[in-house]
Please model this.
Amino acid sequence: MRIAVLSDIHSNVYALDAIVADLKKRGADLTVNLGDILYGPIAPRLTYERLMEQGYTTIRGNQDRQIYEATSTEIESNPTLQFILKDLGVEPLLWMKQLPPSLQITDEVFLCHGTPSSDLIYLLENTSSGRPQIRSNHEILNLLGKISSKVILCGHTHQPRCISVSSGQLVVNPGSAGLPAYTDSEPQPHIMETFSPHASYALIERSKNGAWSAEFFKVSYDADKAARAAIAQGRDDWGFYLSTGRAS
Model:
C-alpha cells in the first residue's frame, strides 16, 4: 500500500497545486491531509475549492478550529482572521467542523495533527530551547498513549521527520505543504524553519514483508507569488517565511 501524506497547507493553493501535480506523476493508493488547511493570508477559499476536487481523506488541525471557534473579540483583534472568514464564506466552515481530530485509516495507520490526544502538542519535538529538538523515546511513547498502530502520521510542526521508537512504531511528519517556517509563542517562544521555500509532502509504502518506508519530497513552485499574496494582507512575516523557508 502506498499513501501520500500532506499537512499544514495554510491556505497556500499555489503549493497545493504543485504537490497535486507532482503526486500525479508518482501515484498513490490513498492521499491523506493532516490539518491546518485554510488558516493563512494567501487563498483560503481557493484552497478549499481545490481540495474539494481532490477528495483527500482529511482530519482537522488546531488552526482549523481557530477559524470556526473564534470569538468576536478574537476576530476584531486579528486582521488575518478577518480576511480568512470573509474569503471563505459559510460552506468551508461547515466542512471543517465535521472533520475528525484523528482517524484510524487502516489497521496499521493512524492519523493525528499534533498527538493522538491533542492538536496543540508537538509529538516529536521539544521546543524549550527555542528551536526544535527531538524528544526522547520515552517521551514520544508517552504521547502516543494507547495508540498501537505500526505507523502514526502527524503534522503541526512543519518539520519533515521519520522517527522509529522502541515499540517498533514509525512516526512520520510530512512537513508543511504550504508554510516552510514560522514563529510561535506557545508553549514558549520558538522558531520552526526548513531553510527552503519548497512545498513538502511524503509517501509511505508498505512492502510485501510488512515493513513500512517513508520518502520525502520537496516540490518547487512560485513561492514568491504566495509571499506577495501574504504581504498584500499585511503579513510581511509570512512573506519572508514563504520566500525563504526561514523565520529569522
Q: What stands out?
A: The mean pLDDT is 98. The CA atoms of residues 181 and 193 lie 4 Å apart. The first strand starts at residue 2 and ends at 6. The chain has one domain: 2-244.
